Fold each of these.
Amino acid sequence: MIEDSLSAAAVTDGLATRFIGHEVICYPSLPSTNDVAKRRAGKGAKEGTVIVAEEQTAGRGRIKRRWLSPPGSIALSIILYPPLDYLPSLIMVASLAVADSIEQVTGLKAQLKWPNDVLVNGKKVCGILVESDVKGDKVDCAVIGIGINVNLEVSEFPQIAPMATSLSQELGRKVSRRALVQSLLFQAEKLYLALADGDSVFKQWRDRLVTLGKKVQVSSGETTCKGVAESVAPDGSLLLRQPDGSLLKIVAGDVTLRQ
Ligand code: BTN
């Protein structure tokens, strides 16, 4: 039987972290865990507080997109108060933590697609939205929002079905969301603490990106660029070698692999 409860006690019980997930607040339904997390951070929530929702009614994705979080998925946000120079690395921490926890809990192979998608068998299984409030050179708060398609039938959601999948669909059985959340919080803390040791998290993230070395098309707002995804910079941006030989630095965009 799959232990599938995401109550605060289910998440914290046996969780071997130093601070992430010591405070967990679960909601049956809310608009967006990131919005609640930012509000709670503004009221002085402890670092590492995690907001979890069984369902989001107005989940937000990157570039003002919607994010679907029906029951059976995981939607959570982690509140952090990092130094300013950690901000570009939070997306690396989050995507590596998701990939590692998926592999540990399910045995499926997880891939990272620049900038922040986690794929299984080439399809998107997780989205990450990092948001921060910065005043001058001080971070008021940062929120890592993570949505994972765990136990759901993606074909019931035609808007995402062509490019998305779920863990249960890939595995042919249900996955314990509790085990996945606990593993995710543990990995996220390990990687977050490792940011103090220089560029090891950046190197792990770079070496796991399936995008690098491939011919890609990158759309960013109204602009689309083509080229070879040559590398990434420590600030997380993509370095695209264009057909004319020049190297273009792209801070945000959507990557499509070209054949
Ligand atoms: C994307 O791929 O566009 C990012 C999706 C991020 C979704 C998560 S679900 C938890 C958190 N709350 C939100 O409203 N969004 C993030």
Note: Helices lie at 8-12, 33-42, 90-106, 167-171, 177-194, 200-208.
Amino acid sequence: MDEVIVFGVVRNTPYNKTVGDTYILGIESSCDETAAAVVRSGEELISNVVYSQIPTHHPYGGVVPELASREHLRAIVPVVRKALEDAGKTYESIDAVAVTQGPGLAGSLLVGLSYAKALAFAADKPLIAVNHLEGHIHAVLLEERQNGNSELQFPVLALVVSGGHTHLYLAERHDSGWTYRNIGHTRDDAAGEAFDKVAKLLDLGYPGGPVIDFLARHGNPQAVKFPFAQIKHRDRNPQNRHSPDELRTDFSYSGIKTAVLRYVEVNNMAASIARRREVMKGISKPKPEDYLAHCDRQTLDLVASFQRAIVNDLVDKTLSAAVDHAAATMLVTGGVAANSELRATFEARAASDGLPVLFPSRKLSTDNAAMIAAAAYPRFLAGEFAPPDISSDAALRLG
Ligand code: KG4
Ligand code: ZN
């Protein structure tokens, strides 16, 4: 790439360097993945290491925050070393360290941020703080650039849909970087959280998304009807208001979880769930096929109908927001973007509307550090370095 001069301040000292290719080490520890990656100039994935804690949390049917921080502590040094080694880089030969500042679990974030701060200090590199949600958006942008598609049509509408978030953003690129405006969010549970909670209720393990994705292919998605409400409203908050009476589109996924619970009770499914629990106890690392072998028709129909309802709601609301805001491109990202039915439905519906919809590969849909290193690149060019006293923020907002 062309050389540019980066001006910033690193630990109270002016930073003034002419840079060409820029190698950023990204570190991510916001939830239950300890991840590190090296990305070149926001456009080429050089290495990508993800240590998943799923086996630790699986027996509890969800992430246990205390166990997550402990696992991050154990994994962070070897994960970062491996990412550098795979990239053929050293602490000295990288240009900057990027780390997730928030949102996420307080203890988990603290491990990544403290480590990144210490590393940047010891190696005398700039530290760049990244919002995890911005990272998910840049997972798509990184791969698009890597595939030679660097020209996006604006406005860009991004749906970030994961275990902790269901957010809609309008994203814009400026000379000095990217800005985001939130135009919708979930009012209660995130979509991935609903997948995880329904899987827990039906004893299908953790995380719920991948198992339900697999099982749903074997059930009838029309069997059970789960209605959703449209939650479209004018933004009456003067602080948020971009233009008078801007339309917002919100989501809500706690109701469907309760509806599944009611269905289980009314249809006396407790005995079949208990039978599955007993069998699964005897399988050390159950695979989706193992769950399939122990699901009756009623369970398969229920999960297929549940998934269809969530997918339709996400697609309907996002496409409707795309019309409201005259979006020219859509991005769908975050763990739930790995869902096969969500991808297929978005692709079919967006194609009929003539709107491009971009997804990350499955490996960059769920949490990873490549997205953090990619999101950090425009900040690096703008010299937006984190001060030495930066702290993590579990409730950090984007836009
Ligand atoms: O982005 P991510 O790794 O972590 C958060 O930032 O939350 O997302 C994890 C979430 C979990 O709720 C998981 O069940 C869901 O993504 N997920 C899926 C699929 N793969 C992961 N949900 C539906 N279908 C999938 N194939
Ligand atoms: Zn995430």
Note: The longest strand covers residues 44-52.
